[in-house]
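User: Hey, quick favor. My workstation is busy. Could you predict this chain's structure for me?
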Amino acid sequence: MMVLNALSGFAVFTNNIGDALQTWADMGIFAYVLPALLIFALIYGILNATKMFGDNKGVDVVVAITIALMALQFDFVPTFFATIFPYAGVGISILLVFLILTGLFVNVNQKGWFIAYFVVASVITLIVVLSALASYDWWGGNWWEEYWATIVVLLVIGGLIAVVIASSSKTNRGGGGNSSSGGPLGFWRA
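Assistant: No problem, here it is.
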């Protein structure tokens, strides 16, 4: 019976895709099933990569399913996912437009391109997270208006600490700054 209900959500059995998506929303696919799958996949991936329980994949699966289902016990996670993912979609769209327009005028193989892209992506990520948190109900409404100065000061202090750490690690390597790991964070080549 449940399989027939799930199949009735497909566009083949409805008038249009909007009706299909609304049927899935009414069934809780977006509020519970997809967040549970996402949490399960992340927990399972982390447990499998870290080998916390050895090579016993069965234990990894049971722990991941348990955490995913327990996370959905209250409406905290579905509400948060429903708040942040629309903002994330807008942020990804802006980043894609940035990539397309920049690719028209800039040679992306030039040095420094990845750093510029990383900075733009970081700013967009920060805006997405702050926008989602500002509209999230449990923050009590106007938290950004109340605490924006404190947040900016903490970000500036964190940035200064990162600069000091980065500059001290370059001097510890002999001032060359070119490590075999590929760059300051070890995963890119500028």
